[in-house]
Amino acid sequence: QVQLVESGGGLVQPGGSLRLSCAASGSIFGIYAMGWYRQAPGKQRELVATITNGENRYYADSVKGRFTVSRDNAKNMVYLQMNSLKPEDTAVYYCNFDHGGRLDSWGQGTQVTVSS
User: Fold this and answer.
1) Which of 17, 37, 45, 61 is the most buried (most CB within 10 A)?
2) Handedness of CA 18, 65, 32, 102 (dihedral sign)
3) Are 55 and 69 in contact (CB under 8 A)?
4) What is the chain's pLDDT, residue by residue, as a tens digit (116 residues)?
5) What pairs with residue 21 in β-bridges?
6) Contact in structure between 95 and 34 (CB atoms under 8 Å)
């Protein structure tokens, strides 16, 4: 099973930027896509952005134009560059890898707090 460790979260003012990183260990055989999810207090976990093994990208409407997902296959890393952050972006952010419909176990996530 792939182990996932997220990092890069923190406290940032509205309009600021953060870059999240996700490191994977173990076998990544069969991965079709890599993605970022977030869960705010009292809300369901939602998909934020994905990048497929063909480098096709998807973004939720709420982050489109502000967030950019990228990957480094040689390092088993996926990143999320977040710009123009808003208070409503406050959440715990998780990465996960999609093995053709099957996700790996969730990691601990990294907290992003956008507040003035």
Assistant:
1) 37
2) positive
3) no
4) 789 999 999 999 999 999 999 998 876 667 889 999 999 999 999 999 999 988 899 999 999 999 999 998 888 899 999 999 999 999 999 999 988 888 889 999 999 999 99
5) 7, 79
6) yes
Token pair in block for residue 12: 């940032």
- In one letter, which amino acid is 8? G
Residue with tokens 């992003």: 112
Tokens of 78: 């996926």
Please give the Cα distance from 67 to 84 (Å, whole number): 9
